[in-house]
């Protein structure tokens, strides 16, 4: 009797239609990266961006993008640029100390083009606390500030370390989430804020896993130019040279492991290679 039941069961399984396997969820599905124009800086002398004197006396221009990340679970603004206040100045320019700071278009106007209001930003995070990355922070008090406590403590010291502007964040009322180590913003591995100290004590980069573009790393100020990356050149004003070199190595390993793309945030060619706003990388 038992053998007959086993035989019938086997026959039923043999003729039953196979159930299609459910597709595995893809990391990065619906994830979008927008690059926004948050200014440029023209320098008379780029010497400070390499402590081996390789840029001494050379003029140059760095771009100051902000990045909006749209995820099914929310939005993240990565870095906030020089500040829309410069846009209100004559010619949209502020000049000082051998540099010209330009903001031809406001961050808010660009967000409005894609239907995003300041209150729609769920999270704001800064690669580090230098003034050219914190200029518009105060515009997003409804967001949750993902902050590295080491970086915030350093930037809040007296006297204020250069080139930090404490007024950009001193009274920022947004709720904070302290990032002690690497931070997975949405909990699915697609948007990760990684510790890369050296430029500043709590410097970080942003790693994205996009459906079509694959792995993309936004550099913050770990690198300022392609030659910084390719030649391992370190700015003279970095707070720790050894930590910088270790962070260089970490990012190189990540790029190799994931066959990733590095976007050097300050480098004009890297910004130009991304889809022009309001286009996006996905």
Question: Quick recap of the structure?
Answer:
With 282 residues, the protein is an alpha/beta fold.
CATH topology: Metallo-beta-lactamase, Chain A
CATH superfamily: Ribonuclease Z/Hydroxyacylglutathione hydrolase-like
Major pleated sheet: 8 strands, mixed
> For this structure, what is the CATH class?
Alpha Beta
Number of domains: 1
- Element order, helices and strands? HEEEEEHEHEHEEEEEHHEH
Q: Give me the side-by-side strand order of the main sheet.
A: 4-5-1-2-3-6-7-8
Strand content: 15-25%
Structural class: alpha/beta
End-to-end C-alpha gap: 60 Å
Number of continuous helical runs: 7
**Oligomer, anyone?**
single chain
**Count of distinct strands:** 13
Q: Uncertain runs with pLDDT below 50, 5 residues or more? A: 1-29
Overall residue-averaged pLDDT value: 91
Rg estimate, integer Å: 23 Å
Brief descriptors of the model:
282 residues, Metallo-beta-lactamase, Chain A, eight-stranded mixed β-sheet, 7 helices, 13 strands, globular
How are the secondary structure elements laid out?
Elements: H1 2-15, E1 32-43, E2 60-71, E3 74-78, E4 93-96, E5 99-102, H2 107-113, E6 123-125, H3 131-134, E7 144-147, H4 149-155, E8 176-178, E9 183-184, E10 191-195, E11 204-210, E12 214-218, H5 226-231, H6 241-258, E13 261-263, H7 268-272
Structural commentary:
The chain is an alpha/beta fold and 282 residues long. It has a single domain (29-272), classed as 4-Layer Sandwich (Metallo-beta-lactamase, Chain A). It contains 7 helices and 13 strands. It has helices spanning 2-15, 107-113, 131-134, 149-155, 226-231, 241-258, 268-272; strands spanning 32-43, 60-71, 74-78, 93-96, 99-102, 123-125, 144-147, 176-178, 183-184, 191-195, 204-210, 214-218, 261-263. The chain has an 8-stranded mixed sheet. It has a 5-stranded mixed sheet with strand order 9-10-11-12-13, covered by helices on one side. Strand 10 and strand 11 form a beta hairpin. The longest helix has 18 residues, at 241-258.
């Amino acid at each position: 009797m038992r053998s007959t039941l086993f035989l019938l069961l086997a026959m039923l399984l043999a003729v039953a239609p196979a159930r299609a396997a459910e597709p595995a969820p893809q990391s990065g599905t619906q994830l979008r990266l927008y690059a926004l124009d948050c200014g440029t800086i023209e320098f008379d002398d780029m010497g400070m961006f390499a402590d081996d004197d390789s840029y001494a006396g050379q003029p140059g221009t760095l771009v100051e993008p902000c990045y909006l990340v749209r995820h099914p679970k929310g939005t993240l603004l990565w870095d906030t640029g020089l500040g829309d206040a410069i846009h209100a100045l004559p010619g949209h320019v502020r000049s000082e100390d051998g540099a010209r700071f330009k903001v031809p278009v406001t961050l808010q106007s660009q967000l409005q083009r894609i239907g995003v209001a300041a209150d729609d930003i769920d999270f704001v995070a800064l690669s580090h606390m230098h003034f050219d990355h914190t200029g518009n922070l105060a515009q997003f008090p409804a967001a949750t500030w993902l902050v590295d406590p080491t970086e915030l403590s350093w930037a809040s010291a007296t006297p204020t370390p250069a080139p930090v502007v404490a007024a950009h964040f001193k009274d920022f009322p947004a709720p904070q989430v302290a990032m002690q180590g690497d931070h997975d913003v949405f909990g699915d591995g697609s948007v990760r804020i990684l510790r890369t100290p050296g430029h500043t004590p709590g410097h970080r980069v942003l790693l994205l896993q996009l459906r079509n573009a694959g792995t993309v790393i936004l550099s913050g100020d770990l690198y300022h130019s392609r030659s910084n990356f390719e030649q391992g050149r370190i700015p003279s004003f970095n707070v720790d040279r050894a930590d910088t070199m270790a962070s260089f190595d970490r990012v190189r390993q990540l790029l190799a492991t994931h066959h990733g793309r590095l976007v050097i945030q300050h480098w004009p060619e890297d910004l130009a290679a991304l889809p022009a706003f309001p286009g996006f990388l996905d």
